[in-house]
Write a structure and sequence with these properties.
The protein is an alpha/beta fold. The protein has two domains: 4-212, Rossmann fold; 224-281, Alpha-Beta Plaits (2-Layer Sandwich), CATH 3.30.70. Helices cover 34% and strands 25% of the residues. It contains eleven helices and 14 strands. A six-stranded mixed beta sheet has the order 6-7-8-4-9-10, with helices on both faces. It is elongated. 36% of the residues are buried. It binds adenosine-5'-triphosphate. Adenosine-5'-triphosphate binds next to β2 and α1. Adenosine-5'-triphosphate is lined by residues 13, 16, 18, 36, 38-44, 298.
Amino acid sequence: MTRIEVQELHKQYGRTRAVDGPTFTVEPGRVTGFLGPNGAGKSTTLRILLGLDRPTSGSALIGGRAYVDLAEPLREVGALLDAQAAHGSRTARSHLLALAVSNRIPRRRVAEVLEEAGLSAVAGRRIKTFSLGMRQRLGIAAALLGDPAVVILDEPSNGLDPEGIIWTRELMRTLARDGRTVLVSSHLMNETASFADHLVVLGRGRLLADTSMRDFIDSRIRPRVRLRTTDDARLRTVLRDRGFNPVREEGGVWTVEGAGLDDIGPLAAREGIPILELTRKEASLEEAYLDLTAGEAEYTSTGAPLNQEA
Ligand SMILES: Nc1ncnc2c1ncn2[C@@H]1O[C@H](COP(=O)(O)OP(=O)(O)OP(=O)(O)O)[C@@H](O)[C@H]1O
């Protein structure tokens, strides 16, 4: 079991403090989402983890060692950082073969990962003819080549079509189920909510959260119910009398914050208020994330949500 350990990591670029002392552990057997506004220090942390940059102080270790000290890095850590990095004049197959040979990985793994990534049919095409989504699949194939215990993916769904997005989601879940350590950065909150068990959130280089997905949402967003009735006036009065603050939204739907189904259902029954609909309103990761990171973004626009998914 190989874990990632980041300890009081600092990285200073001139006057910019890109990473400002986070300490966290990424555990095997689950998918950890790595989140944070633009400029939060995620890419810098990943680059340091993968030996592409040096920390100013502190450490980022994989299985207790720095990446540069790993004997056979591709067999221990698979990473997708920049899908454009592959050499364009090579074919997908020759790119993976070169990686396999230079890392003493059996050649049969090339065909296996091409198949797994859905690239077998285009394995003989030059990478420069690949779409962004195909490059992304190739980058993930390369990350899996050495059958590593640790997989690090930076924005894996970038450029992927819906089928590709589902594929990466299933892949990450499977890798974690196999006991691997999976760290995935993303800006897409609905996406992240669909694959991550645990979250590490940075803001301005600092650790803002290191918690399970469920606790992250539950600790930030109060429970809410939505309901409809034929007697709006009585509903409002009864709820207000009980200290709730019902808010009427479009379509005659009421939202009641800080209330559960058990509060509202029996109360409405006792008071004889006809209920047409009563449901728990699930809080989203996006709401919880925006609540946490408000004010932490290095660059924000005014008015528009920080993260919009297509
Ligand atoms: N090579 C570099 N030289 C100077 N400053 C840098 C360098 N790399 C990153 N930075 C700065 O460090 C800060 C953190 O950047 P980083 O790319 O790690 O953030 P990020 O969380 O990955 O952001 P994004 O979500 O936009 O990818 C930013 O202010 C960035 O401008």
